[in-house]
Amino acid sequence: MVLCSSLAWAQKDTTAVTPADTAKSKWYIPTGVRIGTDALSIARTYYSKSFNGWEVNGDVDFGRYYLSVDYGYWARDYASDKGIYDNNGNYFRVGVDVNFLTKDPEKNMFFIGARYGHATFSEHLVVEGIEDPVWGTLNEDLRNVNINGHWFELTTGIKVKMWKFFWMGYTARFKFGLGTNETGRLVPADVPGYGRTDKESVWGFNYQLFFRIPVRKSPAIITEKDKK
Asked: Which domains are seen in the chain, by residue range?
């Protein structure tokens, strides 16, 4: 609600604005770099017994287009009466966001984008005392070491200036097209940065905190009132 209210305030009185001297605005030179982290990963690490991880986020603007990069660590640990599963590894995402608030002087964002994701991870499964009608009692110790996974994402969300260099935002992710290169008997059950593998597509959500580092001043903006 705070983010949406901030967006509404930022858009007020800016609906009738145009860039001054568009030809000289040098949109291809970034005006700033945002660097931040995912607050949900930090919270899950603190409260969940089965998850440990962190994520660093960054983006840089080229006009209304933003190059976005994420890098993180992810570890899972599941236990049951019949076995134990754990994994750990690193992942990254890279892609482009398109900002639809092009007339906002604060450069707040409502965006739609796309990502390519890649993970390198290891996993371990121990199964004890599983009764099979054909093979009898099963006891297994299976591993995948340094295997790769890759996938694609469609993203949307908002990023809002809260105070000076401090920003907040969220990103919703639709993840699909997962592929892994395991060669053993163990099929990956969970891929860092992606999640569970038992579905063809999954949803993800990040709540992000950013600091923006200015690179140059934004192109001048003039209103209809200034023209008169």
From this structure: 2-9+26-227 (2.40.160.20)
- Residue 35 and residue 210 in contact, taking contact as beta carbons nearer than 8 Å: yes
DSSP letter assigned to residue 215: -
- Calpha distance 151→195 (Å, rounded): 11
CB contact at 8 A, 157 and 170? yes
3-state DSSP call for residue 63? coil
List pLDDT tens digits, range 189-223: 999 999 999 999 999 999 999 999 988 876 655 44
CA–CA separation, 87 and 121 (whole Å): 7
208 DSSP β-pair partners: 38, 169
Q: Which of 18, 75, 57 is nearest to 157 (CA)?
A: 57
Dist. CA 55–CA 73, nearest whole Å: 6
In this structure, the number of other CB atoms found within 10 A of the CB of residue 192 comes to 24
Tell me the pTM.
0.81
> Tokens at residue 99, please?
């900002």
**What DSSP character marks residue 187?**
P
Largest CA distance in the chain: 87
Confidence of residue 88 (pLDDT cuts 50, 70, 90): very high
What is the average pLDDT value for the chain, to the nearest integer?
Answer: 85
Contact present, 45 and 134 (Cβ < 8 Å) = no
The token pair at 160 is 């809002």
Helix spans in 15-170 (H): 39-47
Q: Which of 151, 149, 148, 33 is nearest to 95 (CA)?
A: 151
